[in-house]
Amino acid sequence: MDPRVIVFILLAANILSWEFMVMGACANCVNGELTVRELTNARIEYVKQQILKKLRLSRRPAVAVPVNSLPMPVAEGQTLSAGADKPPEFDDYYGRTEQKIIFPVEGECLTTGRYPFICLQFELPPDVEPEEVTVVELWFYKERDPLDEYNQTFVISEAAHWDSQQQFKKTKPIAIKETDVGEGWVRVELAWAVRVWLEGMERLHTLHVACRTCQLRRAPLSFHEKHRPFLVLYTKYAGKRRRGRTLECGATTSECCREPLYVSFRELGWDDWIIRPAGYHAYFCKGSCAPISAVSQADSYHHNIIRKYFYSVSNERKAEFKPCCAPTTFSSLQLLYMDSNNTVTQKTLPNMVVESCGCM
Length: 360
Fold this sequence. Notes:
alpha+beta; five-stranded antiparallel β-sheet; 32% strand; Cystine-knot_cytokine; disulfide bond; TGF-b_C; growth factor; glycoprotein
C-alpha cells in the first residue's frame, strides 16, 4: 500500500496533519533543528490559526464594543451552557454554535400602555434554525421601585406592529414574570415566541416590557453599560465524549508523554474579542518511541492500519519505519466570543486539546 494512502486514512480518522506535526514533538516528524522556544511559538501560532479556521474566520473580528463593557452576567460567563467546562465531543472540523447573545436597543413603540413600559428592539441571527433552539432567555437588570416590598409583575409582549396585510396594529403578550428581586438581574423564558418568529422568517422584533405593579412612570429597567438587557439563545448540541489515558511528562520521563502547553488569549492580544476562557491548556506530545515492531503489537485502530502495512512490505522497507510520539485522542475547546456584528456567540471547537499521546 502506498504510504500516502496510510496518511490519508489517518487523516480521515481525525488524526490531523497539524496535530501530528505541531502537537507532536518527535524529531522524526519535524525536519530541521528548532529550539524549544521556536517549537512553542510554532505550536501556539498553529493553535491561533486553528481557532480562526474552526470559527470560519479569515482574521480576528473587528469588535466595536469593548469586551470589558459587556453586561456582567455575559462577561462573567453566567450565561454559558450547562457543562461548559466539559463539552461533549463530535466528529467535525468547524466549531458548533451552542449559544447566541443579542443586545437589544431601547426603541419606540407604536402604542402606549396604562403601565410603565420600555420597548426593546433587536434582530435575530440569520444562522439559527427554529428546531435548533432549546432555551431563550431575556435578561434585564431591574432597578428599585417604591413598591418593591411586594412582588413585582412584568408583562412581556410582542410590541404593537402592523400585521402582514398592513391593516391593523397588534400586540401579543408572550410571557408574564413575577419577581421578588428589588434590584438585580431578572430572567424571562421566551423560547416559544422566538421559535415562532424564526419559523416565520421574521428577524426584526420589538419587545414591549411593562411593569403592572410598579409605581414609577417608566419601567425600572437599566440601560447602564454593565446592566443593559440582552437576549440569550441556546441551541441543541449532541455528542459523545472521547477520552484516553496518557502518560504525563515529568522531569525524568523520556518515553512518549503529554507535555503542558498553555495558550493565553491575553498574551496573544485576543482578550478584546474572546470573552471566555482567558486561555486554555492545549498540551502537546513528546518523547521517544519503541521500534516499529513493538508499536505494531499495540491494539488500536490506527496501530492495526500500521500493522497491516508493516507486514506487507519487505524487510528493507520495514527498516524505514520510525515511530513518532503524536496525539491519539482529543477534546474540545469552548469559546464565548464577540464577532464583528457585536453578537456574542458560544461555540465548541473540536480537537483542540490533546488528551492522550501514543507512538504512531
